[in-house]
Amino acid sequence: MAYSGPIPARTHQSPPTSALESSIAPPQTTSHPPPPPPSLLSRITTHLSDPIPSPTPLSSLPILTCCFIAGLADSVAYNAWSCFVSMQTGNTIFLALGASGQPESRPMAWAKSLVSIVCFISGCWVFSHGMAIAPDRKGEEEEEEEEEEEEGGRRTTTKRKAILRKRRGALMTSFTLQALCLAIAAGLTTKTHKSTTIIPITDNLRSPSETISPTGQPSKFYIEFLPLALLAFQSGGQIVASRVLGFGEVPTTVLTSCYCDLIIDEGLWERVGRNGKRDRRVLAVVLLLLGGIAGGWISRSDGGMGVALWVGFALKVGIVVAWGVWRVEGEKEDGENRVEKG
User: Fold this and answer.
1) Residue 116 and residue 135: Cα distance in Å, rounded?
2) Cα 261 to Cα 270: distance, rounded to the nearest angstrom
C-alpha cells in the first residue's frame, strides 16, 4: 500500500569549507623570467639610429664650426691654386672668363674652377643620398607613409628620408668622410723635413701652367687637382648637413644671400637671443671671416697650407665626436621653443 502522507523536504548538504575554497581559488600561474637585457650591438644600433633634434641652438654649433672651416680651406686654396673649394659663385665666374682666354696670366685657371664645381656638386649628391640610406627600425614614427608630390618636374624629399638624414649614425658617417677628405688633402700638401710637399703648390710668381715639384723644378702636371677635388667634395657635405638640420640661413659656403637676409630681417635690432636666425647669420659671417684670416696667416707660416688643413681636419673630428655623445632626451622641446622666433 502506497504512502500518501507529506513528502519530506530534501535537505542540501553544503560541501566542506575546504572543498569550496579549493573550487574558487585562482589557479596558480608559473612566473616567467624577465627578458634578457639588450645586447651591446643592439644598444649601439639604437644609439646610432636616434635622430638628432634640430633645429636647436645647440645643434647649430657644428654647422657654425663648418663656416670657420670653409673660410680656412677657401683662403689657403685660393692662395695656392687661384680658385675656391667652397664658394662656387667665384669659380663659376672664373670658368666663364676661361671662355675668352682670361685672365691671360693664368689661361688654365678655368680648369681648376671646373674641377672644384664638379666635385662640389658630386659631394652634395653623394652626401644627400648617402645619409638617407641609414638603417631603419620598424615600429617607430619614422615608418610614416612616404608622401610624394610633384614640384617643377622633380619629386620633393619625403619626410621619412628627412628623418633618416638626421640620425646620429648618418651625421657621424657624413662628417667622418669629410674629415677623411681633409686628412688626405692635408697629408698631400704638408711640408716634409726638406720643405717640400707630395703635391706641388703653385708658385704665384710663375706661369699658371707651371708648378713647383718636390725636386724644386717646374712641372706642367696639374696633380694638385687631387687635393682640390677632395676639398670641394667635402664642402658639399657641409652645406648638405646645414640643410638637413634645418639651418638654411647658414649655408657654410657663401655669404651673399646671408648678407641680404641679415639686412632685410625685420628683427635685425632685437636683443641677442630673441632672433635665432639673425644671430646665426652674424656668427656665420664672423666665423667665415676669422677662418679666412687664420688661413692667410697659416699660409705665410713655415707650416704652410698643410697645417691649415690639419686644423680643419681636427675640427671635423671634433664634430664627429660631438654627434656621437649628443644628448637626445629633453632637448627637442626646449630647443624648438627657443628657436621658434628665429
Assistant:
1) 31
2) 15
- Per residue in 123-153, pLDDT (tens digit) is 999 998 887 774 544 434 444 444 444 444 4
What confidence tens digit (pLDDT) does each residue in 231-247 have?
999 999 999 999 988 89
pLDDT given at position 9: 56
DSSP code, position 151: E
Q: Report how many helices (DSSP H) and strands (DSSP E) the chain contains, helices first.
A: 12, 4
Distance of alpha carbon 268 from alpha carbon 248, whole angstroms? 17
- Distance CA(298)–CA(305), nearest Å, equals 7
**In this structure, is the dihedral angle defined by the CA atoms of residues 37, 43, 49 and 53, taken in order, positive or negative?**
positive
Q: Following CA atoms 218, 224, 225, 228 in sequence, which dihedral angle do they give, to the nearest 10 degrees?
A: -150
**DSSP β-bridge partners for residue 211:** 219
15-24 contact pairs (CB < 8 A, 24+)? none
Q: Three cell numbers at 27?
A: 589557479
